[in-house]
């Protein structure tokens, strides 16, 4: 059967993956309330289209952190992509480069960062950091990413501990076995700093650490996982360059708001002082249009990329991106928006929210 929308890939990926890999990808924390809300909340929003506007030319191009992308669609960081396809992240990187979108590469990539960059040398990439307890290791990871040409540092802030994903516990999933990360330490550092495999994620990360990161890199810093106006205001105060409104696809604290519901308060608090992005629950072109109308500069996809990988590797990711880009182009056309600049809050029917 032809795969014509993102959820067609979801159904086929389920057939192709082992139960434990499927559960790992699909899983949310605890009762999966937030994971499911991310999708349901988009479906409550209704659009107000405008007609008679000559939509014979519709341009989906935009910029993020000053770099042009073909559409406001990117790839969220997800670790362990070799669970879905043998050369996981390398396929993802190639597909992102072909589609001219941004690929946020995870700290917990199963491929070596050099190989990911070599697979798609012209692609736009940001590096996602799970802050490690060892500062030397953090410094080395960030500076390595900067040397490799990553264009921004995305610090994930919602993971002081991993969320409680019940299926993974039941399946006794052992991610250490799948990590397969290359050891990025220089030989002389091997005794003095821990490797990623043994280091774990820092529980002590706090606002004061942001200035330390700013002192070790020239890359713009983007915080992933902000959900409230209070934290958005602190992000402005600490001079970061962007926020990804995210609840980790409902995999961390359960029963937090869906991302589309959290977006407006973050956008209002930031008041144009930095770019705001969103991930979580995006499955159609209309979802992209709604997120942009409510103030996101770009959206990012998590699970759909892994479905594409699981079905067809690089071709699957390319198809996922093309389907969503085409749907978004159609949504803009049908709603009367000829350019990204024409997408505004007027498109949203607030009386229903
Ligand atoms: C299998 C899987 C692995 C993930 N790994 C990471 C990661 O390494 N770093 C991170 O910041 N977020 C990670 N996330 C969260 C995603 O970046 C993203 O926030 C989320 O998947 C978006 O929701 P969606 O799946 O509904 O699109 C992961 C998500 C999944 C499903």
TrEMBL record:
Keyword annotations from UniProtKB, A to Z: Flavoprotein, FMN, Oxidoreductase, Peroxisome
Record has Flavoprotein as a keyword: yes
First-listed, main subcellular location of the protein, grouped into a coarse class: other
Required cofactor names: FMN
Gene Ontology molecular function terms on file: (S)-2-hydroxy-acid oxidase activity; FMN binding
EC assignment: 1.1.3.15
Subcellular location: Peroxisome
Residue span, FMN hydroxy acid dehydrogenase domain: 1-353
Residues involved in FMN binding: 77-79, 106, 128, 130, 156, 224, 246, 279-283, 302-303
Example of a GO biological process term: fatty acid alpha-oxidation
A Gene Ontology term for the protein's cellular component: peroxisomal matrix
InterPro entries reported in the protein's UniProt record: Aldolase_TIM, Alpha-hydoxy_acid_DH_FMN, FMN-dep_DH, FMN_HAD, FMN_hydac_DH_AS
Catalytic reaction equation(s): 2-hydroxyoctanoate + O2 = 2-oxooctanoate + H2O2; a (2S)-2-hydroxycarboxylate + O2 = a 2-oxocarboxylate + H2O2
Source superkingdom: Eukaryota
Active site: 248
Homology family: Belongs to the FMN-dependent alpha-hydroxy acid dehydrogenase family.
Name of the protein in its database record: (S)-2-hydroxy-acid oxidase
Organism: Microcebus murinus (Gray mouse lemur)
Gene field: HAO2
């Amino acid at each position: 059967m032809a795969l014509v929308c993102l959820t067609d890939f979801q159904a086929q990926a389920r057939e192709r993956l082992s139960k434990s890999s499927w559960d790992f990808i699909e899983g949310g924390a605890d009762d999966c309330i937030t994971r499911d809300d991310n999708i349901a909340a988009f479906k409550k929003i209704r659009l107000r289209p405008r007609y008679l506007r000559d939509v014979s030319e519709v341009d989906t191009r935009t910029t993020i952190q000053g770099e042009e992308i073909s559409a406001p669609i990117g790839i969220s960081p997800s670790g362990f992509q070799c669970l879905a396809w043998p050369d996981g992240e390398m396929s993802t990187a190639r597909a992102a480069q072909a589609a001219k979108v941004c690929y946020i590469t995870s700290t917990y990539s199963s491929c070596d960062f050099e190989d990911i960059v070599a697979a798609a040398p012209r692609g736009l990439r940001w590096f996602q950091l799970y802050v490690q307890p060892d500062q030397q290791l953090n410094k080395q990871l960030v500076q390595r990413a900067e040397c490799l040409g990553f264009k921004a540092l995305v610090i994930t802030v919602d993971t002081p501990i991993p969320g409680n994903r019940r299926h993974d516990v039941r399946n006794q999933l052992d991610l250490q076995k799948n990590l397969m990360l290359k050891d990025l330490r220089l030989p002389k550092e091997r005794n003095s700093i821990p490797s990623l495999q043994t280091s774990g994620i820092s529980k002590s990360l706090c606002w004061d650490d942001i200035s330390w990161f700013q002192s070790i890199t020239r890359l713009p810093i983007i915080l992933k996982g902000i959900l409230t106006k209070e934290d958005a205001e602190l992000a402005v105060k600490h001079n970061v360059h962007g926020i990804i409104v995210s609840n980790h696809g409902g995999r961390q604290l359960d029963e937090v708001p869906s991302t589309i519901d959290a977006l407006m308060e973050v956008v209002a608090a930031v008041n144009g002082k930095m770019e705001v992005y969103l991930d979580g629950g995006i499955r159609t072109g209309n979802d992209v249009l709604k997120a942009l109308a409510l103030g996101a500069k770009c959206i990012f996809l998590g699970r759909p990329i892994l479905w594409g990988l699981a079905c067809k590797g690089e071709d699957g990711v390319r198809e996922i991106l093309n389907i969503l880009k085409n749907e978004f182009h159609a949504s803009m056309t049908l709603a009367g928006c000829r350019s990204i600049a024409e997408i505004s809050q007027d498109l949203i029917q607030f009386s229903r929210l």
